[in-house]
Amino acid sequence: MRRAALLALLALGLLACAHLAASLPSQSAVLKRKRGKKRAAAEQRQLAERDWVAASVQRYLSNQELGDWLAGFEKRCKAVAKLSTIGTSAEGRPIWALEISDRPGQAEAEPAVKYVGNVHGDEPTGRVFTLALAEWLCANHKTDPRAKRIVQSMHLWLVPTMNPDGFERRSRGNSQGQDLNRDFPDRFSSPAMQPSGQEQPEVAAMMAWSQSVGFVASASMHEGALVANYPWDGTADRSTRYENCPDDATFRHLASLYATTHKRMAQPDNPEFPNGGTTNGAAWYPIYGSMQDWNYIVGRCFELTLELSQNKWPDEPGLAALWEDNKDSLLAFPLAAAYGGLWGTVREEGSLRGSKGREVAPLGGANITVLATATGEEQPAWVLSREGRGDYYRPLAPGRYTVVVSKAGYKPFAANFTVPADGSGAQRHFVLAREGSNWGGEVAHAPRFLAGGAPEDASAAAAGGGGSLLPWKAAIGLNGSGEAGQLWTAEQTRSRDRLVMLGAGAVCVYGLWITHSRLKRRSHPRRM
Ligand SMILES: [Zn+2]
């Protein structure tokens, strides 16, 4: 009886294995063929898209042509692009914004960064570079690691022209003759940074949109020099001198990153800025009502003003070379600003959930205050964790710091951390306990599965360890939506699946082997 059962089992096992063996190669051949076809199609597409990049840097498009191009781009690259307008110019022309992301139009626990071109109507290279950047990202986001990271781990917004009326006239100001980069609320004439209501429509649109998205960093594109400019732009007494803002070190770091990644900006033959290609705004010439200072103060957004060509309105045959000069910098800046400093999530303690640990929920509006450890100086960039998702991004220059995470009604938490010089950033996740909670002294801990790298000290370990093992897109919830729950990265999910399959395979082989050896033992005596 038992022998018959064992035999049947063996037969079944053999059948299953034979079936598998028969089906596997043919399946894999089909898969291979499919993959080959897919790859060929992708290559074809890439070839075509490389032409789009080349075409985008041939000449200046009229406003009408630019609108058509953007609409076409959105259709061609709809998986990673969404076109919208942030408002209209004084003469009613649309101010377009192109969102580049693997989930365009969707709110995610990811940082937003923007590039704004053509702020001055007679400085049009930003129109070209934003378009070329969009085309390049669309063409390369499956193959180039930088493009992949940008598309997968952030929302990059491109505004090709903030001043379409000025472009139409080839004038610096808009149709009302107003310089848009002097029209923002200014910290001296309007200390509360309240808009006067008299701002030009282009500026009003930019302010409203910037605040609704909530950018971590941005850059506006200009011409007339070759330099990366950073706050402050103005001085109290209107004198020309270096006026450092509280985040001077971080701004110098970001400006220098742009300049040194640029093909020519940081070269000693840069006529006006031979010493590294960067400048403090007020040290060059003070201005008031600039978009850069407004972004930093009101938007908590680290904005650079990029002067990208010695001449204004450079000749069209030189545009392709100018794009090549800037391409690597344009790719490096958003990643360095968003992920090169301190970033992570803030959550709040929830109710106990079984033995698996505490349930946690995203906590928005928590204040991330960073102090430079060396000087004890506060770097007051008032960065807040975002409502609904709890993620935060705090650009920083490499160095050692202390971070204090606080919110009214919660116990504040402090941790030390280091921003490494290699640009990989410091990833920290915090869980705040409610005031009066008896949750021991532990107010922050590493969400499970997120710890990686060697923690620097006990409090940093409690706050989440290093992030060296994680891909750029840390899973915040399973789908980046920021819901409470266990945290898995894609890599961890894959390795878990591999383990499960290996385990199942081992069990199957073991079972067959046992069956086989038992049958062998029993059948031998009879044959002998
Ligand atoms: Zn300008």
UniProtKB/TrEMBL annotation:
<keyword id="KW-0645">Protease</keyword>
<dbReference type="GO" id="GO:0016485">
    <property type="term" value="P:protein processing"/>
</dbReference>
<dbReference type="Pfam" id="PF00246">
    <property type="entry name" value="Peptidase_M14"/>
</dbReference>
<comment type="similarity">
    <text>Belongs to the peptidase M14 family.</text>
</comment>
<protein>
    <submittedName>
        <fullName>Carboxypeptidase D</fullName>
    </submittedName>
</protein>
<feature type="domain" description="Peptidase M14">
    <location>
        <begin position="59"/>
        <end position="337"/>
    </location>
</feature>
<dbReference type="Pfam" id="PF13620">
    <property type="entry name" value="CarboxypepD_reg"/>
</dbReference>
<keyword id="KW-0121">Carboxypeptidase</keyword>
<dbReference type="GO" id="GO:0004181">
    <property type="term" value="F:metallocarboxypeptidase activity"/>
</dbReference>
<dbReference type="GO" id="GO:0008270">
    <property type="term" value="F:zinc ion binding"/>
</dbReference>
<feature type="region of interest" description="Disordered">
    <location>
        <begin position="167"/>
        <end position="202"/>
    </location>
</feature>
<feature type="active site" description="Proton donor/acceptor">
    <location>
        <position position="307"/>
    </location>
</feature>
<feature type="signal peptide">
    <location>
        <begin position="1"/>
        <end position="23"/>
    </location>
</feature>
<keyword id="KW-0325">Glycoprotein</keyword>
<dbReference type="InterPro" id="IPR050753">
    <property type="entry name" value="Peptidase_M14_domain"/>
</dbReference>
<dbReference type="InterPro" id="IPR000834">
    <property type="entry name" value="Peptidase_M14"/>
</dbReference>
<dbReference type="GO" id="GO:0006518">
    <property type="term" value="P:peptide metabolic process"/>
</dbReference>
<keyword id="KW-0732">Signal</keyword>
<keyword id="KW-0378">Hydrolase</keyword>
<dbReference type="GO" id="GO:0005615">
    <property type="term" value="C:extracellular space"/>
</dbReference>
<dbReference type="InterPro" id="IPR008969">
    <property type="entry name" value="CarboxyPept-like_regulatory"/>
</dbReference>
